[in-house]
Amino acid sequence: MKRILRLLKSRSKAFYLLIILLGLGNSLIYSGILYFINQAITNQPVAIWPAYDWVLYLSIIAFSAACNIISQKYLIVLTNEMLVNYENSVLTKVKHATYEKFEKMGKQKIYAALGDSWILAEFPRTFVASANTLIIVLCSIGYMFTVNVPVAATFTVFLVLLSIGFIRSGITIKNEFSAIQRYQDQFYGYMTDFLDGYKEVKMRILRADNILGGFIYNNRAAKKKLSIQTYTKDTIFGFISRFTWYLLIGSIVFLFPRILNFPIAEMTVCLLIVLHMLESMNFFLGNIPFYFRVDGALKKMEDLDQQVEDFRTADMIEKVNLSKEPFESIVFENVEYTYFDEHNSLVFSLGPVNVTLRKNETVFVEGGNGSGKSTFVNLLTGLYIPQSGNIYYNGEKIDLSNADAYRDKLSSIFTSNHLFSENYDEFDIREQNVQLSQLIDMVQLRNILRIDTSKNWFKHHLSKGQQKRLALVYSLLENRDVLIMDEWAAEQDPAFRAYFYQEIINRLKSMGKTIILITHDDRYINQADRVIKFEEGRIVQDALLKPLLEPQFVG
Ligand SMILES: Nc1ncnc2c1ncn2[C@@H]1O[C@H](COP(=O)(O)OP(=O)(O)OP(=O)(O)O)[C@@H](O)[C@H]1O
Asked: What are the coiled-coil residue ranges (predicted)?
């Protein structure tokens, strides 16, 4: 419960003021009602303004209604604020993550952490409702003490024991709810495979049968079994509480009159009090498991925070800009990068890489599958920071402090390029934009692209190859000196591929771009100024083709 206390501490003073206000309003109305009933039963006038008791009664109701309306309004605002703040804080951390951390963690965890936020959003409302019912219970007991001390004392002991029982059962149930949550997380993983791979699922009966029958249905069956078990336990505790109330009512009616001097009027008032607080007490006790679930959700969020520790580190590092000089060179000096698996065994190692990429060069990067080209691209684009060695941009060393600024100097089109649904880059998409118009002609999308005027953005119902062409247009609209393309031409048809290597590359050169192209297209190698070849994570060839110099070989 430490986590819940921390959450409560983070609330504003207004939150506690609200609880006091609500408590005041409700204790007034509940004690007031009991008092009025008691006076009516015992046929006594109320102590203040007996002639206008109904005015007093209505005033109490009006005051309590006002307290409740104000507090509920405040709670709605608070709840929504809390939810949005939490979502924003998670996403801000993700924004400041290093790409490596993001890649390792996977988007699944982020969805899960956001998915749990609803329970936190429920927290203030439930907390205030619990505080409210607690006040009712305390007022009722307090009032009972004024009616009959032994009965009230017995009753208090009973409530304390019942609460202890509920807290203990809450702890057991909490662990089972965590297990249910784990099934849910696994389920979301299968759902991603099922929905993202829907085409592939459709294409094979065995796969379709297994993904549903073997994995999803089994997961659902296990989750159902545990849910039935847990919710049954939860319900049984609820029943126990309700039925012990009946025992208590029975003891007021049958036991106390036999063992105590218990006048009928006192018995009636005590019974009314017990019936009056029955619903509140059940609500209060019934919500105890909720707090354990909130605690579980907070723990999950803390774990996420732990995992993204360097999200904050990267955030705290003071950002540094690079000099505004035009691009001259990117230098790799003994750069090494190694992937490890979850058991810390080496998976693949790149480097040491020593290479200098110069202004206006067109460099083709080649190599077999798994030779390390994309890893090299991730380092080149500043998405990975070298584990050893250094990268220099125009002589300035790149590290976490200036990696954002470094990435901002480069245009990149990745193999699995994503086209955004909105114009986040604030590009000028109007038809009058001459640069845009020329680029659209260059990639031959003139009669294909449609502008969504409401979004000031292109509609993206395009084929894979067309999407890559549009990605090239967007990259060139960024107007940066260096253009990095990872297997850009792979999805293009042979005619457009030839046009890309023979025409577009020349156009890009004439624009003064420095081009780094990862490619398997050997037949267009003559378009490169330089060819770098990777094998098993090392550069095995670095050949200058233009200007015609002797090829250089790196062993
Ligand atoms: N995130 C990762 N975690 C662990 N290993 C990885 C990761 N990314 C790549 N690898 C491994 O590193 C090696 C090099 O991968 P990389 O993607 O750099 O090759 P590539 O030359 O781009 O291959 P391809 O031509 O097939 O795209 C591969 O053996 C791959 O399994």
From this structure: none
Same CATH fold, 329-544 and 2-309?
no
Which of these, 368, 342, 372, lies nearest to 355 by C-alpha position? Answer: 372
Name the CATH code of domain 329-544 (choices 3.30.360.10, 3.10.20.310, 3.40.1190.20, 3.40.50.300): 3.40.50.300
* CB 374 near ligand 1, within 6 Å: yes
State whether CATH 3.30.565.10 applies to domain 2-309: no
Tokens of 319: 């950002």
Please report, for the chain, the start and end positions of each structural domain, with discontinuous segments joined by +. Answer: 2-309, 329-544
Q: What is the 3-state secondary structure (H, E, C) of 348-389?
A: EEEEEEEEEEECCCEEEEEECCCCCHHHHHHHHCCCCCCCEE
Q: Which residue has the higher pLDDT, 35 or 484?
A: 484
pTM above 0.90, yes or no: no
How far apart are the C-alpha atoms of 127 and 132, rounded to whole Å? Answer: 8
Question: How many Cβ atoms are within 10 Å of 78's Cβ, its own excluded?
Answer: 21
| Six-digit token string for 450 | 């449609």
The preferred substitution site among 366, 371, 534 for testing ligand 1, maximizing ligand atoms within 8 Å of CB, is 371
CA distance 95 to 97: 6
Contact 373 CB / ligand 1 (< 6 Å): yes
Burial grade of 555 (CB within 10 A; 0-12, 13-18, 19 or more): exposed
- Cα dihedral: 240, 241, 245, 250 (round 10): 20
pLDDT in tens, 285-318: 777 777 877 777 777 777 776 666 555 555 566 7
